[in-house]
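Lab manual, section 2.4: Encoding a predicted structure.

Procedure: take the sequence of the chain (216 residues), apply the prediction step described in section 2.3, and record the output as structure tokens. A sample record is shown.
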Amino acid sequence: MLTMLLHGSLCIWGAALVVLLAGCQQCGSVEVPPEVLQNNDTLYAACKMRPSTSLPDGLPKVYGQVLFKQDYPDGKLKVLLRFSGFPTEGGDPVPRAVHIHQFGDLSQGCDSTGGHYNPHLVHHPDHPGDFGNFEPQEGKIMRMIESEATLFRGLSVIGRAVVVHEKKDDLGRGADAGSLLHGNAGRRLGCCIIGITSPAIWNTQYKLYNRRLRRN
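Recorded output:
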């Protein structure tokens, strides 16, 4: 009789363990995309920058790419910015602000991407996607940075938008409410939606970026 009871208890615990493990696997599939395992514990993402469809005449039409690379689970997010279309004449180049915005929605051009991605409800420039200001050279921006944003878990920026702005970000030092919301960076010149990609595009552009650094 005791043997039967022990056997039954073990069966119950075994079944519970199977359910628990299955649940963990399902949670893991949500938090960790399969591409992480396919690419040696690294996730790659990209978005293709295009001018806003609601852009007024006379403003630059920005094209390019934003590429992302992050090692799982706690690697620093690396971001490679490649933009073109800025003016090449007219004096000193204007620094341009770049931010991650909340929504991957381009139904109304870049205006429908919402405000800055601000999961911690803090003031600008402490949002994880506040990339800062970048000064074009010969009408182009090519820069590599590290970001506090992430591609993983509930705070992932996958599916959100990157926006290039008309003006320089005042980094929260302005004397108005807009400074603490968006840095008074002006209108949205271009935008794109972040999506998972293969390593190929990162590897190609990273090599080009390093060649440019060596030339300069």
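Check your result against the sample. DSSP finds four helices and ten strands in the chain.
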